[in-house]
Amino acid sequence: MTDESTPTAGTAAALPDRPEIHRGLAGVVVDATEISSVDPASSSLLYRGYPVQELAGTRSFEEVAYLLWHGELPDDAELEQMRAQERARRELPDAVMETVLALPLTTHPMDVVRTAVSVIGAHDPTAEDRSPEADLSRAQDLMAQLPGIVALDQRRRHGLEAVDPRPDLGYAENFLHMVFGQAPPEPVVQAFEVSMVLYAEHSFNASTFTARVVASTLSDLHSAVTAAVGALKGPLHGGANEAVMAAFGEIGTADRVDAWLDDVLARKQKVMGFGHRVYRTGDSRVPAMKAALDGLLAIDDPEGLGAMYAALERGMAERTGILPNLDYPTGPAYHLMGFDTPTFTPLFAASRVVGWTAHVREQLAHNALIRPLSEYTGPERRHVPQGAGRGPEPARPR
Ligand SMILES: CC(=O)SCCNC(=O)CCNC(=O)[C@H](O)C(C)(C)COP(=O)(O)OP(=O)(O)OC[C@H]1O[C@@H](n2cnc3c(N)ncnc32)[C@H](O)[C@@H]1OP(=O)(O)O
Ligand SMILES: O=C([O-])CC(=O)C(=O)O
Questions:
Q1: Residue 92's domain spans which residues?
Q2: N or C, which end of the chain is more exposed by having fewer CB within 10 Å?
Q3: What is the CATH number of the domain that holds 121?
Q4: Atom 7 of ligand 1 has which residue's CA nearest to it?
Q5: Residue 274 falls within a domain, yes or no?
Q6: 199 ligand 1 Cβ < 6 A
Q7: Of 103, 165, 120, which is closest to residue 357 (Cα–Cα)?
Q8: 258 tagged catalytic
């Protein structure tokens, strides 16, 4: 039985004709996309055909955003225009500033991002314009404004004033400037830009799929992105980069890794930053991000993160054969850059917004409402008891 309109089934075992169920949609190809491809066999990730490890370190985040939205890398004139429009859109609308500053300091930074995106949507003066051009403009606004939101939130939690964007700086350097109040050394900017490029897109991951589901109802782009932020927050997805750093904090020193790991695995708990739904022989993005992390560790490693990183990776491989995903190297890298741990997943969101919005536009260009089926396993068909219960409330006299 695959038709939900006839829920006459009893227990699943009683079904004459069991539908094949794909829990978590594992292995299911839901739609086609031209934006990126993840190949588990060769452990590769292509953005519009380009291997991500060739883009990371050689192309700016602005160029990669252009590629994901438009399908080709920009030429000089297009890049100039892209840079100019990104710089011109960085200022946060007053309503967003005021909303963020009014939230409790204890609000999770991903909830701050989710709320801010929603407020941007609620103040969208072009809300009635549902054209692809208007959606591209909304995507450009979100890319330019999320750094200001993330920076404002980290700073307010540390009792610091907001820092204005600097139009003379590129996306990555300006982002760091707005968080830390100064432009950090070049190797830090480079490592940060690599992380932004690597996080930008990853086919039908949970948050992108969420955005596509919302878009498929012909809802608006801000609703799709707001929902995607919620999906990214969870520790099985983007939230893992924060959890990695929490684990290092708990472990403390490299010589304690084995005991910690034995205990976690004995309790059947997940080690965050390891494993992947699609990759089986390692996450394509880890080598590039590990190289960026190594660059940061070479500058300074006062907490012995490099040794803990290596010991945990080795311990997991020996015990489970499970390999790191991108969140494993980005956690310690963001820590070494000076971000506080709750800011890590918002950094992921600031990058992934480019992928989400590319997918929303693609979904709308060839839309089909996303609405799968389910197998009913609740009680068999039965009748509502007569004479029991209170029934509807009588209408009140006016
Ligand atoms: C950028 C990203 O969003 S990447 C993902 C970030 N998320 C994480 O790092 C969270 C930790 N990892 C995980 O939870 C998983 O590996 C997932 C959710 C990412 C993918 O997992 P799935 O494909 O759904 O596989 P599932 O969770 O069913 O795991 C299969 C088996 O491997 C084990 N396993 C998978 N990942 C881990 C892990 N990180 N630590 C310990 N065991 C693990 C599971 O316990 C399970 O074992 P079992 O078969 O004995 O029950
Ligand atoms: O693809 C996934 O399932 C998760 C992931 O790595 C990402 O979104 O970057």
A1: 36-233+341-365
A2: C
A3: 1.10.580.10
A4: 236
A5: yes
A6: no
A7: 120
A8: no
| Ligand 1 pocket residue status of 272, Cβ below 6 Å | yes
Helix axes 344-365, 132-157, angle to 10 degrees: 170
Which residue minimizes the CA distance to atom 9 of ligand 2? 202
Active site annotation includes 237: yes
- Quick one: 115 and 257 in the same domain? no
Residue 360: inside a domain, yes or no? yes
CATH code, 272: 1.10.230.10
Do 225 and 269 belong together in one domain? no
For residues 120 and 221, membership in a common domain is answered with yes
Measured from the CB, is residue 241 less than 6 Å from ligand 2? no
Say if ligand 1 is within 6 A of residue 326 CB.
yes
pTM of the model: 0.94
**181-237 pLDDT tens trace:** 998 899 999 999 999 999 999 999 999 999 999 999 999 999 999 999 999 999 999
Assess whether 248 and 149 both reside in one domain.
no
Give the model confidence (pLDDT) of 236-245 as tens digits.
999 999 999 9
Q: Are residues 257 and 158 in the same domain?
A: no
Query: DSSP E strands: which ranges in 136-256?
Result: none
Reply yes or no on whether 340 is catalytic. no
ipTM over 0.85: yes
Q: Cβ(276) to ligand 1 under 6 A?
A: yes
Answer yes or no: do 348 and 330 share one domain: no
Q: Locate 22 and state its tokens.
A: 């794909």
CA atoms of 233 and 146, how far apart (whole Å): 15
- 365 within 8 A of 132, measured Cβ to Cβ: yes
Number of domains within the chain: 2
Nearest atom within ligand 2 for CA of residue 207: 8
d(CA 378, CA 358): 39
Ligand nearest to the CA of 271: 1
Report d(CA 307, CA 297) in Å as an integer. Answer: 10
